[in-house]
Amino acid sequence: MVSVRGLRKRYGAVDAVAGIDLEIDRGEIFAFLGPNGAGKTTTVEILEGFRTRTAGEVSVLGMDPAHGGGAWRDRVGAVLQESNAEPGLTVRESLQLYSGYYREPRDIEETIALVGLGEKADTLAPQLSGGQRRRLDVALALIGDPELIFLDEPTTGFDPSARRTAWHVIEGLRELGKTVFLTTHYMDEAEELADRIAVIAGGRIVAEGTPGTLGGRNSMASTIRFTLPQGTGADDLPAELRALVAGVDGRVTLMTETPLAHVGTLAEWARGRGIDLPDLDVRRPTLEDVYLELTEEPA
Amino acid sequence: MTTAAARGPVALVVHQARFDLRGFLRNRQARFFTLALPLLFMVIFNGVFGDNVVGPGSTKASAYYVPGIAALGVIAASFVNLVISITAQREGGILKRRRATPVPAWVLVGGRALSAIGISLVVVAGLLAFGRVVYGVKLPTSALPGIAFTAVVGSLTFCVLAYALSTVIQNEDAAQPTVMAIMLPLYFISGIFIPNINLPTWLQHVASVFPVQHLAAGFRHSYLPGAHGVGIVWSDIGVLAIWAVIGVAVALRRFSWLPKTASA
Question: Which of B5, B19, B97 sits opposite A80 (nearest CB)?
Fold first, then answer.
């Protein structure tokens, strides 16, 4: 669906996008993740055909978006990062306007229902809440029944419940068989929605993978934390665990790549001594940890 | 149901114009500046100066002001309203979102121009009828096609100039003051607010370069004593056309569908 090789975009002396490769398959929800200013929107705007590139090969639905044309735009939908409502038009009228642009649009009422705006169909679009307006944007991108949809930071600035609703709508796109290119700077959003994630920082792809394996997350060390009772110190732990101690700061922290085995050893030792470890917790690195590590500015 | 796009480009332009018109009619501010303000100017200038006599032909000033304010009405509908609205729609990402669909760019511009021309014709008809009924300023029936033609050419010219001017305006807050800074002096020197026969010659020459005076003169021609024919003054139409060409050239070179103040 989307294939990018060595994409580069230079503004003045700065490479906003410094040579990236991407490959997105049909039916996939692909998340393009990165902090503000990392080159996400520049990349998306090149893929949408709004910006020219400095170098590299780009193919979207088998065409170069720089020469997309009407027949190509018929098959692509875009939810832009910032776009106001159509002035003076209701939800339904906005969709009537956009549906007229396509030869074979989706059904208007069905599309309104799909994004959950059924009760707001006759409300003037500028009077909708931020979350509702974003869902109208999704409906406008969907009305032409595109194969591929770009969603540029669809939930930025939303409260948690509006985000949940928006996520539900995006999940619905998967059921329609659409391919989705999602940009976001929210880790949890990518984790919740995406089949595959690429992380961009400073114009380069720094990691790519599924939410479970991104950045080697599946093989990264887990942490085991617990507080020892009075009179017992980290030195009293069995040698096997003592070697794993990463810190003693009120609580003992162990770092391990085989958390299950070591929790077993710890449990046996504690039981043997007749002590309890009521605040024991075992934690895998979150995607957030991975992301922060990947996108950290070099000091 | 076949869609506008399936019925061809003309249907698509009409489709776009219908929705642009609906948006305009629901915008209180646009309605006031386009429909009410020209009428207000008409009442004020005719109330203050209407019974004076203008120029060597001893024309009553009201016969001078009615066509002049009609020109202002066309400019309000096609230029002032459009510059503000295009800039706001560009900065709000609305133009960009429309361009992400298969609709051709010229359809969006054409639909906008068509709605502006429609509004201009209604405004001109209303102002001239008001002048006829309230101030007794008569117009020969034979001049109506010429007036309509001049209104369409004038509206189209100012639409194109609106697209051209919007390219140098950074954001919607700057649109209204910029338009006013350009138009107010032109209204004063182009015979809209004061008969330009009262101006120094050099200022008359300055005014004759710009399209405002020629649109007003085009409308005024049929009101002059002894006017006959269809009422089209080709020299005035010619100057308007030259400005339209300049506008198209600037717009084609500089017009962007993307917000100027975009985030990275």
Answer: B97
Q: How many interchain CB pairs under 8 A, A with B?
A: 105
Top residue of A44, A63, A79, A83 to mutate, by most chain B CBs within 10 Å, is A83
- How close does chain B come to A42, measured CA to CA in Å? 7
Q: Helix, strand, or coil here: B182?
A: helix
Distance CA A35, CA A33 (A): 7
Asked, for residue B261, whether it belongs to a domain, the answer is no
Cα–Cα distance for residue pair B41/A226, rounded to 1 Å:
81
| Parent domain of B18 | 4-254
Cβ atoms A183, A41 nearer than 8 A: yes
ipTM of the complex: 0.90
Note the helical H segments in A1-154.
40-47, 69-73, 91-99, 108-114, 130-142
Higher pLDDT among residues B49 and B261, named by residue: B49
B104 in a structural domain: yes
Quick check: is B111 in a domain? yes
Q: Give exposure, A64-84, as e/b (b: 16+ Cβ within 10 Å).
A: ebeebeeebbbbbbbbbbbbb
- A229 DSSP assignment: P
pLDDT at B263: 43
Neighbours of A172 (CB within 10 A): 15
Three-state DSSP class for A251?
A: strand
pLDDT in tens, A47-84: 999 999 999 999 999 999 999 888 999 999 999 988 89
Residues of chain A with pLDDT under 50: 299
Per-residue tokens: A208: 């790519």
Residues from B in contact with A at Cβ < 8 Å: 3-6, 12, 15-16, 19, 22-27, 85, 88-89, 92-94, 96-104, 257-259, 262-264
Hey, how many other C-beta atoms are within 10 angstroms of the C-beta on A255?
15
B115, B20 in Cβ contact below 8 A?
yes
| CA B98 – CA B258 distance, rounded (Å) | 11
Residue-wise pLDDT for B202-248, tens only, equals 999 999 999 999 999 999 988 877 766 777 888 999 999 999 999 99
* Nearest-angstrom CA–CA distance, A11 and B157: 36
Supply the pTM of this predicted model: 0.84
- Alpha carbons A203 and A14: distance in angstroms, whole number: 10
Say what the pLDDT of residue B128 is: 94
Residue A78: its H or E element: strand A76-79
The pLDDT, as a whole number, for residue A211 is 84
Q: Is residue B221 part of a domain?
A: yes
The pLDDT value given to residue A299: 47
Split into its structural domains, chain B has a count of 1
Interface test with B, best of A11, A101, A104 (most B CBs within 10 A): A101
